[in-house]
Amino acid sequence: MTSSSTWITLCIALVTLYVARCVVDDRRTKSKYKDVVFVGPTGTFGTPIGFLQLLFGTRDFIQEGFEKHYGRLFAIPTLFQMTFVISGPELIDDVRRASDDQLSLYGSIKEGMQTDFTMEPHILENPYHFKFVHLSLTSNLGGRYPEIHEEVIAAFSELIPPTEGWTTFPAWFTGKHVVLRVVNRLFVGPPLCNNPDYNDINDAYSDALVKTALVMGFTPGLLKPIVSTFLDSYIPKTLRRAMEHIGPLVEERLEKERLLGKDWPGKPNDLLTWLMEKAPQGDRSLKAITIRLLATMFAAYRPASMALTQALFDLATFSSYISELRDEIEPIVKEEGLTKESINKMYKLDSFIKESLRLRAAGKSSMPRKVLKDFTFSNGTTILAGSTIIAPGYAIHHDARHYPNPNEFDGFRFSRLREEQDDPVRHQMVSVGPTFIMFGNGRHACPGRFLVSALLKTMLAHVLMTYDIKLEQEGVRPADKWYTFTPAPNQTAGLMFRKRAT
Ligand code: HEM
User: Fold this and answer.
1) Taking the domains of the chain in order of start, what are their residue ranges?
2) pLDDT tens for the 502 residues of the chain, in order
3) Ligand 1 centre and the CA of 464: distance in Å?
4) What is the number of the ligand 1 atom nearest to the C-alpha of 369?
5) How far does the centroid of ligand 1 lie from the alpha carbon of residue 474, in Å?
6) Which atom of ligand 1 is least distant from the CA of 186?
7) What is the DSSP letter of 134?
8) Which of 3, 279, 297, 335 would give a disulfide with 283, using CB separation of 3.0 to 4.6 Å?
9) Which residues line ligand 1 (CB under 6 A)?
10) What's the Cα-to-Cα distance from 182 to each of 156, 191, 235, 451, 460, rounded to whole Å?
11) Mutate which of 439, 450, 456, 458 to test ligand 1's pocket (most atoms within 8 Å of Cβ)?
């Protein structure tokens, strides 16, 4: 056979296997769950047809299920099997209260990111690097705020030098690089945080992870080890490049420790130090440290840079908010400067960013959990081990029951609620609950959200005080791009800046 006919035969075999697997799973699932509604095409080939409709965006099963069956569990077709969607505050609260050995976030990340093939097989058995985000960053945010502020100013003035006339800058590229640089200041410190090659590696590694995970997700289990050897050569190559940067830094810090003692003056309190000192003994090799650094950056920088880019697009689109935001920010900065405490007082700015997150950042599928033990919800429905549960993030954040005029950008929606209810905590960006699950909910709620809030508020406050900003085409907000369940800001559009005209 010629090589092209071999490929065609292989493809036909794989598609046949896939369809057969879906059909069997579909029948098995429907016979097991008598009290769960199935949304999507019925019949023998329901799952593969439904998956194709999902892939090409011709139907939105999650939204359909949310509207018709609010408060219940419903099932939708996804790649290989039915996925269960929870809706309504009670069921979301059931997930929040479930233990990790019943409903597992890491189990779903392992499957979604195919970590056995893209990272390290044991990385999610002990994700201590995630805990270090909380210990090294969140609980130390006040102490590290001056570095955040300094890096924000440096990053913006390098990427967007203020000019008298309007100049266009690529929005996504700029947002991404500001966030990479500032977050790396907290992960590895200067000067590496501003090394373009190191920041590009972080970006490229995340990109390679997503693409490889996608292909591996499509590959049947038995073929995964073979397919992965063809696919992931880019990941080890990128990892090696990262190790070339981290290696000398680790050596330099160890040398200082040898010469000046364990608590040498100026010793950084960053993620790298935590990984070098607090990772389990067998996990302190250069490779292990570098993988954990890159894996944490993967969790951190993509959602944060998307949020920054979207908030900048919103600032330029809804420019009538600019003067009121400046009126809030300027007296505070004049009085106290930009500090961790002073940004906490900027609740209109907090509201503006939270509204941008609510409207733009919620994926259709949120809070994924792998069911490790059969789990019974408070309404009596039992989901069997091996299944996957998700929450309908986009639908929840666009639900008129909780957000009047849900599709409208109302930048002061949350600050008005704060004033009306005289409640300074409940409506801020970092507060999670069943109707705002942008950062998840419960034990696994994003530990980086306090940092994200500080970063985004500092960045927007800096932009508002330093620049004027507008869209390239007046009145035309660059359209978002959807990757099946996940939204992303427009990645090619520009934004126009000039030095603020006072
Ligand atoms: C706008 C930016 C961000 C968004 C929208 C976001 C959202 C989320 C969500 C939805 C989860 C899963 C929660 C759940 O399923 O219950 C999560 C987990 C996590 N996020 Fe974030 N995140 C952001 C930024 C960051 C940053 C900057 C960091 C680190 C500095 C970070 C570190 C983490 C970690 C370590 C976890 C895993 C938590 C665990 O182990 O339980 N995130 N994030």
Assistant:
1) 1-125+365-399
2) 456 777 777 677 777 777 777 777 777 777 788 888 999 887 777 777 887 888 788 889 999 999 999 999 999 988 777 899 999 999 999 999 999 999 999 999 999 999 988 888 889 999 999 999 988 888 889 999 999 999 999 999 999 999 999 999 999 999 999 999 999 999 999 999 999 999 999 999 999 898 888 888 878 788 888 888 777 577 889 999 999 999 999 999 999 999 999 999 999 999 999 999 999 998 999 999 999 999 999 999 999 999 999 999 999 999 999 999 999 999 999 999 999 999 999 999 999 999 999 999 999 999 999 999 999 999 999 999 999 999 999 999 999 999 999 999 999 999 999 999 999 999 999 999 999 999 999 999 999 999 999 999 999 999 999 999 999 999 999 999 998 899 999 999 999 999 999 7
3) 27
4) 15
5) 34
6) 30
7) I
8) 279
9) 105, 127, 130, 133, 137, 299-300, 303-304, 307, 361, 366-367, 438-441, 444-448, 451-452
10) 10, 11, 24, 11, 14
11) 439
Determine which helix (DSSP H) or strand (DSSP E) holds 481, and give its type and residue range. Answer: strand 481-483
Q: Measuring CA to CA, how many Å separate 161 from each of 156, 170, 224, 306, 421?
A: 7, 13, 48, 22, 42
Which atom number of ligand 1 is nearest to the Cα of residue 137?
A: 30
- Which one-letter DSSP state was computed for residue 408? S
Residue 191, preceding peptide bond in cis (omega within 30° of 0): yes
As annotated, the binding site for heme includes 446
